[in-house]
């Protein structure tokens, strides 16, 4: 991968918080094939780093999170089903890497967030947007299908009924409707998005990381159809054997901030 391609996604670490930036502001951060591939590699690498407490995903600048895939690539990279399948395998691998990442993820959403951008934001655990942000998935107007893996990033977030409405109508709608539909967690004034998203990441990072991972695992498991087994129920008591639990309750008794180690 060239230096130019590597610069399409930036990573910055501040303590135990990592910020990932989709970095094509001149194209409103529209995603390209190399970007999807690099994004997956970054999330795979971060998943193996137990020192990470929270990941913030954003678009460069304040005009857009991302409008989805770069349409100019279709002629060269997705002009037929064979090319689209190869492209799709990269997207699917990346979506899976984001979904399986054990660390809590916060989407910092300025401006436009549609199509593939909506999918990436939907894979985050908390989504904070500006009051002037816009959302949607108008891919039917391009004659395109959102495949199973991509559609799950939306349907798992808002349910099949709302996902169907979004896809059938292809409307681009405002932040207040996105909040009502459950697409975003919080709407704040445009000049407060960065502040609120980073404050949210800070609050997450202050919590016990093992607990966050267990809660994410349990909530994802509850979304399935299989009954919870007795062995799975017992996992809910494993936290009592961790150093973080002992640190947490002692810090509470001592009236001080806990220093969790993830052990």
Distinctive features:
16% strand; 47% helix; 2-enoyl-CoA Hydratase, Chain A, domain 1; Lyase 2-enoyl-coa Hydratase, Chain  A, domain 2; 263 residues; six-stranded mixed sheet; alpha/beta; 2 domains; four-stranded mixed sheet
Structure overview:
- The protein is of the alpha/beta class and 263 residues long.
- It has 2 domains: 3-205, 2-enoyl-CoA Hydratase, Chain A, domain 1 (Alpha-Beta Complex), CATH 3.90.226; 208-254, Lyase 2-enoyl-coa Hydratase, Chain  A, domain 2 (Orthogonal Bundle), CATH 1.10.12.
- 47% of the residues lie in helices and 16% in strands.
- The protein has 12 helices and 10 strands.
- The chain has helices at 3-6, 33-47, 74-77, 81-100, 116-122, 148-158, 160-169, 175-181, 193-206, 209-222, 230-234, 243-254, and strands spanning 9-14, 17-22, 54-59, 64-66, 105-109, 112-114, 126-130, 134-136, 172-174, 186-188.
- A 6-stranded mixed beta sheet has the order 1-2-3-5-7-10, with helices on both faces. The protein has a 4-stranded mixed beta sheet with strand order 4-6-8-9.
- The protein starts with a helix and ends in a 9-residue tail after the last helix.
- The model has no long low-confidence stretch (mean pLDDT 92).
């Amino acid at each position: 991968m060239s230096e130019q391609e590597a610069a399409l996604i930036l990573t910055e670490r501040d303590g135990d918080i990592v910020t990932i930036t989709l970095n094509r502001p001149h194209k409103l951060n529209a995603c390209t094939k190399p970007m999807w591939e690099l994004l997956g590699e970054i999330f795979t690498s971060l998943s193996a780093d137990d020192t990470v407490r929270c990941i913030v995903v954003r678009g460069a600048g304040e005009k857009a999170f991302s409008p989805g895939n770069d349409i100019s690539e279709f002629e060269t990279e997705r002009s037929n089903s064979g090319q689209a399948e190869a492209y799709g395998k990269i997207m699917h691998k990346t979506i899976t890497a984001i979904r399986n990442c054990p660390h809590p993820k916060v989407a910092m959403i300025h401006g436009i967030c549609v199509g593939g951008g909506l999918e990436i934001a939907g894979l985050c655990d908390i989504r904070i947007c500006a009051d002037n942000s816009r959302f949607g998935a108008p891919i039917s107007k391009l004659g395109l299908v959102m495949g199973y893996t991509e559609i799950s990033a939306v349907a798992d977030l808002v349910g099949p009924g709302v996902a169907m409405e979004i896809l059938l109508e292809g409307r681009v709608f405002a932040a207040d409707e996105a909040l009502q539909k459950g697409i975003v967690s919080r709407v704040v004034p445009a000049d407060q998005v960065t502040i609120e998203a980073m404050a949210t990441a800070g609050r997450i990072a202050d919590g016990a990381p093992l607990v966050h991972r267990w809660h994410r695992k349990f909530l994802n498991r509850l979304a399935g159809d299989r009954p919870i087994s007795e062995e799975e129920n017992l996992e809910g008591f494993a936290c009592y054997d961790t150093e973080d639990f002992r640190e947490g309750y002692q810090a509470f008794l001592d009236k001080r901030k806990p220093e969790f180690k993830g052990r």
